[in-house]
Amino acid sequence: MESEKLPFESGIFLNSGFFHRTEKEVEVSNVARKVLGAWNSYESGFRIILLCFFVFTLSVTIALVVQILYGKSEVALNGAVVSDERICTDVGKTALIRGGSAVDAVISTVFCLTLKRPQSVGFGGGGFMLIHKHGHSEESAVLNFREAAPAALVAADLSKAEFDEGKAGLLVGVPGLIAGLEAAHSRYGVLPWADLISPTSQLFELEHVGLGPINSSRGFKFILDEISANGAGGFYNGTIGKEIVAAAQARGGVINENDVSSYAASWEEPIKLSLDESFHVIAPSFPSAGPAALHALGLLQRKGIRIGSMSEPGAMQLSVHALKLSLARFYRLVNLVLGDADFSGNASDADGAMMEEGTLNADLANIPEDLLKPLIQEPVLPVSPNRYGTHVAAVDNKDIYVSFVSELRATGANRIVLPNAAFELNSALRSFDKTAALSANSKSDLRNSAGPGKRPASLATPVIVLPSKQLCGARLVTGSRHVGSVLQVLLRKMFLGDITTESVEKPRWYLGKSVGASGIIKENQDINNRGLVLLGPYPSVNLIVKVNDSISAHSDSRTRLEISVNISELLWSEHRVMEMEAGQSTAKMWWKTFKRYRVSVFFPAVAMYMIYSDYSKTQRFKRENPEAFKELNNKSSVGGDWLFKR
């Protein structure tokens, strides 16, 4: 038999006299129904979010497992670029992000520097590039694009040219920069050649009105377009090559069109030094100062100094004298024994002469024990204010390491600018030995004397340090236009254990052929009068350090000028990526995306749901009607106020 319902359980009696409720009770009842409905809606929505979160997490986990078991290597290597100009560094990073190699990044950065730092690097200069492919092949190569002497040069004329403005053209060597960049791209480039130049062309269009007289003319843009379309041939064989010849000859030079058109960069083998049985250091041979850098490090090792075991005062003191002896050995060998290796025999013989045991032991005897005292005995002065050089370093996701150094040495009365003011020529032939002799009987043995096609000695050197035992151990990429800067940065990073920033930023010392005031080269030329930016006193030296897959990089702030941000940098900032993550697998990117956005997107989404859902209406009712809310809690049959205080 159907059970009898009470009157108030039957809907027909709700508004009759059998079951009477006050208006207040009806209002509270309606609110209770709304609250219960809001809560049910809130719980339902929250379950949906949790379900989506679980499905997404499970999908990422499955993708990671599949990638590990069946995919390519999960190791995602980062890349880095360092240079003296922030915007040019970003241009290089953009090349990496687009899938380019470290060589592509360096080339793109260097073209940008020709626009932003024409006093440091330009189409009229030359230099060296050191490249290493880390990992399986362990291939290392040196690209020598040092400026070359013209065929008609007479050595005796150089001694007069440095003091005669009308003969300044004799100091101009055939520029090697463009030939070097093209040669590097031919072997290691990935991106199209024109794509590496286009960022500089865009920057020129954005800011050429505000540039100095050297790179603000349309001649600069013409050269960029010519090189972009025709490569090095467009630079050496066409109108530009003829303008180089005309400008040099107008100042007494003997360079001709055949000298320019026949120039070629040369690939060479690097030299190596095993350091502390844990690392080996690679650098270019002569005519760079790579042998001097390795010789100085060898002296420190022979002295019994081990990596990380040296106090700073002793390290600085010993490094000064090690560098002094190494430079003395370098000058002697480069002038008397070797010079340009293409003209004076086997480079490995001279490299061995600097690193052989007898040479190191003999030089070691000239470093007495008392030099380890925390005082510098000789009047070594702060680094030279020479600003005519630059260094660029890059590492890509294929573990290719590149170190690039270049200099112009176009100073004072020796400065020659092309008629269209597009760039200035080098004075590299000043680096040939112009003295009558180093000793009474050595005149006939001078090898760094000027000669047709020869490339003069340079104090610039790129350096790469690699681990001997652990493939993923510390790797360093650095370099400078002066070997002393390189040595001191390596000393601080490897022997003293400084962090990357301190290794570059701490004070450095400059040594010429002798130590003391006579050895300090001060070149306070009319830089401001030339319309160029007057930069800090430190030669360019930058550093990239990679340990496992982590990279730290730093550019010396004393070579940068960041007083204001111009319009080109503001526009270019749209393309800047401060931290590069290239070449990562799909699963890796999913995981990084999840980690990066799970807090910043998921939880705010829950909060937004709670704010704009029906649950928020309950909270608003509580604020606006506190007495009714309290009464509802007291009379509600759903269990008190636990519902509203969650």
Automatic annotation (TrEMBL):
GO molecular function: glutathione hydrolase activity
One Pfam family per UniProt: G_glu_transpept
InterPro entries: GGT_peptidase (IPR000101), GGT_ssub_C (IPR043137), Ntn_hydrolases_N (IPR029055)
Transmembrane segments: 48-70
CC per GO annotation: plasma membrane
Keywords: Membrane, Transmembrane, Transmembrane helix
Residues bound to L-glutamate: 146
Key word Transmembrane present: yes
Keyword flag Transmembrane helix: yes
GO biological process, one term: glutathione catabolic process
Annotated protein name in UniProt: Uncharacterized protein
Organism: Notodromas monacha
